[in-house]
Design brief:
Blueprint lengths: L2 E2 L4 H5 L4 H10 L9 H11 L2 E7 L2 E5 L5 E6 L2 E5 L7 H11 L4 E5 L5 H4 L2 H6 L3 E5 H8 L2 E3 L4 E3 L10 E3 L2 E6 L2 E7 L9 E5 L4 E3 L20 H14 L5 E3 L5 E2 L1 H23 L4 H6 L18 H14 L2
Parallel strand pairs: 5-6, 6-7, 7-10, 14-15
Antiparallel strand pairs: 1-2, 2-3, 3-4, 4-5, 8-9, 11-12, 12-13, 13-14, 15-16
Bound molecules: zinc ion.
Length: 321
Protein backbone atom coordinates (compact mmCIF):
# COMPACT_ATOMS: atom_id res chain seq x y z
CA UNK A 1 0.00 0.00 0.00
CA UNK A 2 1.33 3.40 -0.93
CA UNK A 3 0.19 6.45 0.94
CA UNK A 4 1.00 10.00 -0.02
CA UNK A 5 0.09 13.11 1.88
CA UNK A 6 0.87 16.52 0.46
CA UNK A 7 -0.82 19.70 1.57
CA UNK A 8 -0.92 22.16 -1.28
CA UNK A 9 -3.45 24.94 -1.12
CA UNK A 10 -2.87 25.63 -4.78
CA UNK A 11 -4.02 22.11 -5.65
CA UNK A 12 -7.40 23.01 -4.33
CA UNK A 13 -7.82 26.66 -5.19
CA UNK A 14 -7.33 26.32 -8.91
CA UNK A 15 -10.09 23.79 -9.20
CA UNK A 16 -13.48 24.80 -10.49
CA UNK A 17 -15.46 22.20 -8.60
CA UNK A 18 -14.81 23.58 -5.15
CA UNK A 19 -18.36 24.62 -4.51
CA UNK A 20 -19.57 21.15 -5.40
CA UNK A 21 -17.13 19.58 -2.99
CA UNK A 22 -18.05 22.16 -0.39
CA UNK A 23 -21.71 21.20 -0.67
CA UNK A 24 -20.98 17.50 -0.48
CA UNK A 25 -18.97 17.98 2.67
CA UNK A 26 -21.80 19.98 4.16
CA UNK A 27 -24.00 16.93 3.76
CA UNK A 28 -21.63 15.08 6.03
CA UNK A 29 -22.29 17.58 8.78
CA UNK A 30 -18.97 19.41 8.81
CA UNK A 31 -18.38 22.39 11.00
CA UNK A 32 -17.13 24.66 8.25
CA UNK A 33 -20.04 27.08 8.28
CA UNK A 34 -18.16 28.99 10.94
CA UNK A 35 -14.76 29.30 9.36
CA UNK A 36 -13.67 31.38 6.44
CA UNK A 37 -13.71 29.88 2.98
CA UNK A 38 -9.93 30.09 2.67
CA UNK A 39 -9.52 28.28 5.96
CA UNK A 40 -11.88 25.66 4.64
CA UNK A 41 -9.68 25.17 1.58
CA UNK A 42 -6.71 24.57 3.83
CA UNK A 43 -8.66 22.22 6.09
CA UNK A 44 -9.99 20.33 3.12
CA UNK A 45 -6.62 20.04 1.37
CA UNK A 46 -4.97 18.72 4.52
CA UNK A 47 -7.45 15.86 4.67
CA UNK A 48 -7.00 14.68 1.14
CA UNK A 49 -5.36 11.30 1.06
CA UNK A 50 -4.72 8.94 -1.80
CA UNK A 51 -3.70 5.32 -1.37
CA UNK A 52 -3.66 2.18 -3.46
CA UNK A 53 -4.58 -1.50 -3.23
CA UNK A 54 -2.98 -4.02 -5.58
CA UNK A 55 -5.55 -6.14 -7.45
CA UNK A 56 -3.36 -8.23 -9.77
CA UNK A 57 0.21 -8.05 -11.10
CA UNK A 58 -0.79 -5.23 -13.44
CA UNK A 59 -3.80 -3.61 -11.77
CA UNK A 60 -4.45 -1.41 -8.75
CA UNK A 61 -7.30 0.47 -7.16
CA UNK A 62 -6.61 4.07 -6.21
CA UNK A 63 -8.70 5.27 -3.27
CA UNK A 64 -9.11 8.94 -2.50
CA UNK A 65 -11.88 11.31 -1.53
CA UNK A 66 -14.00 10.59 -4.61
CA UNK A 67 -14.88 7.44 -6.48
CA UNK A 68 -12.45 4.52 -6.61
CA UNK A 69 -10.14 4.52 -9.62
CA UNK A 70 -8.81 1.44 -11.43
CA UNK A 71 -5.25 1.60 -12.73
CA UNK A 72 -4.15 -0.85 -15.45
CA UNK A 73 -0.45 -0.87 -16.30
CA UNK A 74 1.21 -2.61 -19.24
CA UNK A 75 3.42 -2.23 -22.28
CA UNK A 76 0.76 -0.11 -23.97
CA UNK A 77 0.71 2.41 -21.12
CA UNK A 78 -1.75 3.22 -18.34
CA UNK A 79 -5.51 2.93 -18.50
CA UNK A 80 -7.57 4.57 -15.77
CA UNK A 81 -11.22 3.96 -14.99
CA UNK A 82 -12.52 7.24 -13.51
CA UNK A 83 -10.32 10.02 -12.14
CA UNK A 84 -11.59 11.22 -8.74
CA UNK A 85 -12.37 14.76 -7.58
CA UNK A 86 -10.36 17.48 -9.26
CA UNK A 87 -8.37 18.51 -6.11
CA UNK A 88 -7.05 14.95 -5.80
CA UNK A 89 -5.75 14.68 -9.34
CA UNK A 90 -2.19 15.85 -8.70
CA UNK A 91 -1.84 13.51 -5.76
CA UNK A 92 -3.15 10.70 -7.88
CA UNK A 93 -0.45 11.47 -10.45
CA UNK A 94 2.26 11.26 -7.80
CA UNK A 95 0.88 7.94 -6.52
CA UNK A 96 0.91 6.57 -10.07
CA UNK A 97 4.47 7.85 -10.60
CA UNK A 98 5.55 5.83 -7.57
CA UNK A 99 4.28 2.67 -9.28
CA UNK A 100 5.22 3.19 -12.92
CA UNK A 101 6.76 5.69 -15.33
CA UNK A 102 4.41 4.64 -18.15
CA UNK A 103 2.24 7.40 -19.65
CA UNK A 104 -1.51 7.58 -19.05
CA UNK A 105 -3.08 6.69 -22.39
CA UNK A 106 -6.83 6.30 -21.80
CA UNK A 107 -9.37 7.27 -19.15
CA UNK A 108 -12.77 5.58 -19.13
CA UNK A 109 -15.54 7.41 -17.23
CA UNK A 110 -18.13 5.12 -15.60
CA UNK A 111 -20.64 8.02 -15.34
CA UNK A 112 -20.77 11.81 -15.20
CA UNK A 113 -20.80 12.54 -11.42
CA UNK A 114 -18.08 15.00 -10.34
CA UNK A 115 -16.41 12.59 -7.92
CA UNK A 116 -15.64 10.31 -10.90
CA UNK A 117 -14.64 12.78 -13.63
CA UNK A 118 -12.89 15.52 -11.64
CA UNK A 119 -9.52 14.87 -13.26
CA UNK A 120 -10.85 14.96 -16.82
CA UNK A 121 -9.82 18.54 -17.58
CA UNK A 122 -6.30 18.16 -16.23
CA UNK A 123 -5.70 14.81 -17.95
CA UNK A 124 -7.52 15.83 -21.13
CA UNK A 125 -5.33 18.91 -21.44
CA UNK A 126 -2.30 16.64 -21.11
CA UNK A 127 -3.50 14.65 -24.12
CA UNK A 128 -5.03 11.62 -22.41
CA UNK A 129 -7.86 10.15 -24.48
CA UNK A 130 -11.10 10.16 -22.46
CA UNK A 131 -13.78 7.61 -23.34
CA UNK A 132 -17.37 7.35 -22.11
CA UNK A 133 -20.93 6.50 -22.97
CA UNK A 134 -22.50 9.20 -25.17
CA UNK A 135 -24.86 10.30 -22.37
CA UNK A 136 -21.88 11.08 -20.13
CA UNK A 137 -20.42 13.43 -22.72
CA UNK A 138 -23.84 15.05 -23.21
CA UNK A 139 -24.20 15.72 -19.48
CA UNK A 140 -20.61 16.92 -19.06
CA UNK A 141 -21.10 19.31 -21.99
CA UNK A 142 -23.92 21.18 -20.25
CA UNK A 143 -24.60 22.49 -16.75
CA UNK A 144 -26.34 19.79 -14.73
CA UNK A 145 -28.73 20.20 -11.82
CA UNK A 146 -27.75 17.58 -9.25
CA UNK A 147 -30.89 17.12 -7.17
CA UNK A 148 -29.24 15.29 -4.28
CA UNK A 149 -27.06 18.27 -3.38
CA UNK A 150 -29.55 20.78 -4.74
CA UNK A 151 -26.93 22.39 -6.90
CA UNK A 152 -26.05 23.03 -10.50
CA UNK A 153 -22.75 21.50 -11.58
CA UNK A 154 -21.12 23.57 -14.30
CA UNK A 155 -20.25 21.97 -17.64
CA UNK A 156 -16.67 20.89 -18.17
CA UNK A 157 -14.55 22.83 -20.62
CA UNK A 158 -13.88 21.13 -23.93
CA UNK A 159 -10.54 19.77 -22.74
CA UNK A 160 -12.31 17.66 -20.09
CA UNK A 161 -14.89 16.09 -22.38
CA UNK A 162 -14.67 12.50 -23.60
CA UNK A 163 -13.41 12.54 -27.19
CA UNK A 164 -14.54 8.99 -27.95
CA UNK A 165 -18.08 7.90 -27.07
CA UNK A 166 -20.12 4.77 -27.60
CA UNK A 167 -23.84 3.98 -27.43
CA UNK A 168 -23.85 0.31 -26.40
CA UNK A 169 -20.46 -1.22 -25.79
CA UNK A 170 -16.81 -1.03 -26.75
CA UNK A 171 -13.76 -3.28 -26.42
CA UNK A 172 -10.13 -2.25 -25.90
CA UNK A 173 -7.26 -4.61 -26.64
CA UNK A 174 -4.54 -3.13 -24.46
CA UNK A 175 -2.00 -4.32 -21.91
CA UNK A 176 -2.52 -7.96 -22.93
CA UNK A 177 -6.12 -7.72 -21.80
CA UNK A 178 -9.52 -7.58 -23.47
CA UNK A 179 -11.27 -4.68 -21.78
CA UNK A 180 -15.02 -4.64 -22.33
CA UNK A 181 -17.00 -1.50 -21.58
CA UNK A 182 -20.67 -2.32 -21.33
CA UNK A 183 -23.39 0.32 -21.11
CA UNK A 184 -25.81 -0.61 -18.35
CA UNK A 185 -29.43 0.39 -17.95
CA UNK A 186 -30.68 3.73 -16.54
CA UNK A 187 -29.85 2.87 -12.93
CA UNK A 188 -27.61 5.21 -10.97
CA UNK A 189 -27.70 7.65 -13.93
CA UNK A 190 -28.51 7.33 -17.64
CA UNK A 191 -24.85 6.95 -18.59
CA UNK A 192 -23.59 4.09 -16.41
CA UNK A 193 -21.00 1.68 -17.74
CA UNK A 194 -19.24 -1.34 -16.26
CA UNK A 195 -15.63 -1.84 -17.32
CA UNK A 196 -14.49 -5.48 -17.31
CA UNK A 197 -10.82 -6.42 -17.64
CA UNK A 198 -11.39 -9.95 -18.92
CA UNK A 199 -7.93 -11.47 -18.49
CA UNK A 200 -7.36 -9.94 -15.08
CA UNK A 201 -10.96 -10.79 -14.10
CA UNK A 202 -11.51 -7.35 -12.58
CA UNK A 203 -14.60 -5.19 -13.08
CA UNK A 204 -15.34 -1.57 -12.18
CA UNK A 205 -19.09 -1.13 -11.70
CA UNK A 206 -19.20 2.59 -10.93
CA UNK A 207 -21.86 3.54 -8.39
CA UNK A 208 -24.32 0.80 -9.30
CA UNK A 209 -23.15 -1.30 -6.35
CA UNK A 210 -21.69 -0.97 -2.87
CA UNK A 211 -21.02 -3.68 -0.32
CA UNK A 212 -21.69 -1.37 2.61
CA UNK A 213 -24.29 1.22 1.67
CA UNK A 214 -27.68 1.41 0.02
CA UNK A 215 -27.75 2.53 -3.62
CA UNK A 216 -28.65 5.96 -4.89
CA UNK A 217 -30.69 6.41 -8.04
CA UNK A 218 -30.00 9.91 -9.36
CA UNK A 219 -33.45 10.58 -10.80
CA UNK A 220 -32.31 14.04 -11.91
CA UNK A 221 -29.75 12.30 -14.13
CA UNK A 222 -32.10 9.71 -15.59
CA UNK A 223 -31.56 7.00 -12.97
CA UNK A 224 -34.31 4.60 -11.88
CA UNK A 225 -34.77 1.63 -9.58
CA UNK A 226 -35.97 -0.63 -12.40
CA UNK A 227 -32.88 0.31 -14.38
CA UNK A 228 -30.62 -0.38 -11.42
CA UNK A 229 -32.12 -3.85 -10.98
CA UNK A 230 -31.54 -4.53 -14.67
CA UNK A 231 -27.97 -3.14 -14.44
CA UNK A 232 -27.09 -5.38 -11.49
CA UNK A 233 -28.41 -8.36 -13.45
CA UNK A 234 -26.12 -7.36 -16.35
CA UNK A 235 -23.15 -7.02 -14.00
CA UNK A 236 -23.80 -10.51 -12.64
CA UNK A 237 -23.88 -11.92 -16.17
CA UNK A 238 -20.44 -10.40 -16.88
CA UNK A 239 -18.77 -11.80 -13.75
CA UNK A 240 -17.92 -15.14 -12.17
CA UNK A 241 -17.19 -16.28 -8.62
CA UNK A 242 -13.54 -15.19 -8.86
CA UNK A 243 -14.13 -11.72 -10.32
CA UNK A 244 -12.78 -8.84 -8.26
CA UNK A 245 -15.59 -6.30 -8.17
CA UNK A 246 -14.52 -2.68 -7.70
CA UNK A 247 -17.35 -0.39 -6.62
CA UNK A 248 -17.27 3.39 -6.73
CA UNK A 249 -17.26 3.83 -2.97
CA UNK A 250 -16.58 0.60 -1.12
CA UNK A 251 -13.92 -2.06 -0.80
CA UNK A 252 -12.91 -4.79 -3.25
CA UNK A 253 -15.92 -7.08 -3.46
CA UNK A 254 -17.21 -10.14 -5.30
CA UNK A 255 -20.09 -11.62 -7.29
CA UNK A 256 -21.83 -13.07 -4.23
CA UNK A 257 -22.16 -9.63 -2.69
CA UNK A 258 -23.52 -8.22 -5.96
CA UNK A 259 -26.13 -11.03 -5.93
CA UNK A 260 -27.05 -10.18 -2.33
CA UNK A 261 -27.37 -6.52 -3.30
CA UNK A 262 -29.63 -7.32 -6.24
CA UNK A 263 -31.83 -9.56 -4.08
CA UNK A 264 -32.07 -6.84 -1.43
CA UNK A 265 -33.04 -4.25 -4.05
CA UNK A 266 -35.68 -6.52 -5.62
CA UNK A 267 -37.10 -7.36 -2.18
CA UNK A 268 -37.32 -3.79 -0.86
CA UNK A 269 -38.63 -2.45 -4.18
CA UNK A 270 -41.33 -5.15 -4.23
CA UNK A 271 -42.48 -4.28 -0.71
CA UNK A 272 -42.62 -0.57 -1.49
CA UNK A 273 -44.38 -1.17 -4.80
CA UNK A 274 -47.08 -3.25 -3.07
CA UNK A 275 -47.59 -0.60 -0.39
CA UNK A 276 -47.99 2.08 -3.07
CA UNK A 277 -50.66 -0.10 -4.73
CA UNK A 278 -52.40 -0.38 -1.34
CA UNK A 279 -52.54 3.42 -1.23
CA UNK A 280 -49.98 3.88 1.53
CA UNK A 281 -48.29 7.25 1.85
CA UNK A 282 -44.53 7.73 1.77
CA UNK A 283 -44.53 8.41 5.52
CA UNK A 284 -46.41 5.19 6.19
CA UNK A 285 -43.99 3.24 4.03
CA UNK A 286 -40.98 4.75 5.82
CA UNK A 287 -42.56 3.99 9.21
CA UNK A 288 -42.97 0.32 8.22
CA UNK A 289 -39.15 0.09 7.87
CA UNK A 290 -39.02 -2.05 4.73
CA UNK A 291 -35.21 -2.16 4.86
CA UNK A 292 -34.88 -3.25 8.49
CA UNK A 293 -33.47 -6.72 7.84
CA UNK A 294 -30.71 -5.22 5.69
CA UNK A 295 -29.76 -2.24 7.84
CA UNK A 296 -26.94 -4.08 9.62
CA UNK A 297 -25.31 -4.89 6.26
CA UNK A 298 -25.64 -1.57 4.43
CA UNK A 299 -24.99 0.53 7.47
CA UNK A 300 -22.73 3.19 6.02
CA UNK A 301 -25.34 5.91 6.31
CA UNK A 302 -22.97 8.81 5.64
CA UNK A 303 -24.53 9.15 2.22
CA UNK A 304 -27.79 7.19 2.10
CA UNK A 305 -29.90 6.53 5.18
CA UNK A 306 -32.65 3.87 5.08
CA UNK A 307 -35.40 6.50 4.84
CA UNK A 308 -33.52 8.22 1.98
CA UNK A 309 -33.26 4.90 0.16
CA UNK A 310 -36.97 4.19 0.65
CA UNK A 311 -37.86 7.69 -0.54
CA UNK A 312 -35.60 7.28 -3.56
CA UNK A 313 -37.34 4.03 -4.57
CA UNK A 314 -40.79 5.53 -3.90
CA UNK A 315 -40.04 8.54 -6.11
CA UNK A 316 -38.57 6.38 -8.84
CA UNK A 317 -41.61 4.08 -8.90
CA UNK A 318 -43.97 7.06 -8.91
CA UNK A 319 -42.10 8.71 -11.76
CA UNK A 320 -42.86 5.62 -13.89
CA UNK A 321 -46.60 6.23 -13.66
ZN1 LIG B 1 -22.23 8.57 -8.88
Amino acid sequence: MIITKTHSLFDVIYERKLLTTFSLLLTFGTFILFISLSNFYIAFASHLEVNTTKLTDSMYVIHGSGGNVILSIGNDGIILVDDQYAPVTKKMESVIANITNKPIKFIINTHWHPDHVGGNERFGEAGVIIVSHENVRKRLSNDQFFEMINQTIPALSKKGLPIITFSDNMTFYQNNDEIRINYLDNGHTDGDSAVYFTDNNVIHVGDDFSDRSYPFMDLSSGGSVDGLISSLQSILSMTNKDTKVVAGHSGISNQTKVKDYLNMLIDVTGVISNMIKEGKSLDEIIQSKPTSKYDTIYQDYSFIKPKDFVTNIYESLNSNK
